[in-house]
Amino acid sequence: MGLLSVGADPKIRSLAQQIYERHFMLDPKLADVYDDQQKESMYQDILYNLDYLSIAVKLRDDFLFTDYAVWLYELLCNLMKHIDRDRMRDQMVQHYRLLIEFAPKLFEEEDLVYALALLDKAIAATVEAVAQMKVSDPFLNGVHVNLRKAYLEALLRSETRHALHIIEEASTSGIPLVEIYEDILQPTMEEVGELWHQGRITVDKEHYCTSTTQMALAQFYKEVFSQPRKNRTILTSCVGSELHEMGGRMLSDLFEYHGWDSVYLGAAVPMNALLSAVEVHHPDLVALSVTMPQHLPLCYEMVKALRSRFPAIKIAVGGRAFSMTNELWRKWPVDIYTQRAKDLVAWASTEKIA
């Protein structure tokens, strides 16, 4: 915390000190998370929150305090980016519950009833705010936008069961597997990556979203791996120390669904391992995925090594990093670049790769 200090009266200052101490009793980890300056700011913020609550009660304005609660939550998330939005929500909800506990010391009769109602609304508004993040325009375009938004909101709230249910219901409703991958899961994970890149979610939240989406994908593996075979093989890899492997996983699944055999090497694959895998598996197509731009030079070296050692092999590149360049792939000895897995599947289904 750490926003504004107010000239509160002694009664409110005493109450603020009691609430402050109770916070650290209930959550001892705060002593390690906050430094001395942040601890002082936290006390000042409790003063300000009590003052704001008192004003809202006096004016009998519901919106005044709930709007403030959402503003406060978003501001604190921005100021303390090392704390996940879920964790910040939990801290704020705990804070409002402490205000409920101590409210009888500040309010009486009708004022107390109204103050308690305001605090309940502040808790509800804060919980709702966890997933209320501005998303990019591309995320709001295309088909199945409502499902995509619902899935992202479930992920941001860490509602694993609900997130998996959304994807299961999408399949049950008749949405084709390819559309679930391409129009719901992939855009959502791209948006998650963008939120992380902007510092709006923490790395552990990004990892949670990835692991939950991996569970969602697993629901379809019986269908994915039961399709007639085409006697073709794709080898997919995430370049170098790249840890963002979701795109490569989805690509492999979609090729399997279309009858290909896939060799998915996963994340952090060094060049010698990639070349060795190609030597062993003799794939018809090698697809390299790069998410972070700093891994593009290594990807280029891998492409050159593949082309030199296996001149006839087809090479595809993709991933977020290429979308941040001026068609860099055109300068490389690759056969194709695609942003979407289904476009690569369509291209590979032509005679160009026969």
Structural account:
The protein is an alpha/beta fold and 354 residues long. The chain folds into 3 domains: 10-129, Orthogonal Bundle (Globin-like), CATH 1.10.490; 138-218, Methionine synthase domain (Methyltransferase, Methionine Synthase (B12-binding Domains), Chain A, domain 1, Orthogonal Bundle); 228-353, Rossmann fold (3-Layer(aba) Sandwich). It contains 16 helices and 5 strands. It has helices at residues 10-26, 30-33, 36-59, 62-79, 85-102, 109-129, 145-156, 160-172, 177-197, 203-218, 221-224, 246-257, 271-281, 296-309, 320-323, 341-348, and strands spanning 233-238, 261-264, 285-289, 314-318, 336-337. It has a 5-stranded parallel sheet with strand order 2-1-3-4-5, with helices on both faces. β3, α14 and β4 (314-318) form a beta-alpha-beta unit. It is elongated. It starts with 9 loop residues before the first helix and ends in a 6-residue tail after the last helix. 36% of the residues are buried.
Task: Please give a quick description of this structure.
With 354 residues, the chain is an alpha/beta fold. The chain has three domains: 10-129, Globin-like (Orthogonal Bundle), CATH 1.10.490; 138-218, Methyltransferase, Methionine Synthase (B12-binding Domains), Chain A, domain 1, CATH 1.10.1240.10; 228-353, 3-Layer(aba) Sandwich (Rossmann fold).
